[in-house]
Amino acid sequence: MLKGNKNLVTYGMLSGIVMLAPLFFAGGYLLNVLVFVGINTLLAVALNLLLGFAGQISLGHAAFFGLGAYISGVSTATYGVNPWAAMLLAAVAVGLVAFAIGFPILKLKGHYLAMATLGFGIIVYIVFNETVDLTGGPSGLSGIPSFTVADFSFDSDMKNYYLIWGITLVAIVLSANLVNSRIGRALRSIHSSEVAARVMGVNVRLLKVQIFTLSAVLSSIAGSLYAHTMTFISPTSFGFNFSVELLTMVVIGGLGSILGPLLGAGLLTLLPEFLRTFQDYDIIVYGLLLVLMTMYLPGGLASGFTAMCARIRSRFSREVVKNAQG
Amino acid sequence: MLRVKNINTYYGQVHALKNISLHLNEGEIVTLIGANGAGKTTILNSLSGITPPRDGEILFEGRPVAGLSPDCIVDMGISQVPEGRQVFKDFSVEDNLELGAYLRYRKREKKSVIRKDIEDVFELFPQLSGRRNQMAGTLSGGEQQMLAIGRALMARPKVLLLDEPSMGLAPLVVQEIFRVITDLRDQRSTAVLLVEQNARAALKIADRGYVLETGKVMLEENAYDLLENKDVQRAYLGRDKKEIWER
Question: Is B19 helix (H, G, I), strand (E, B) or coil?
Answer without folding.
Answer: strand
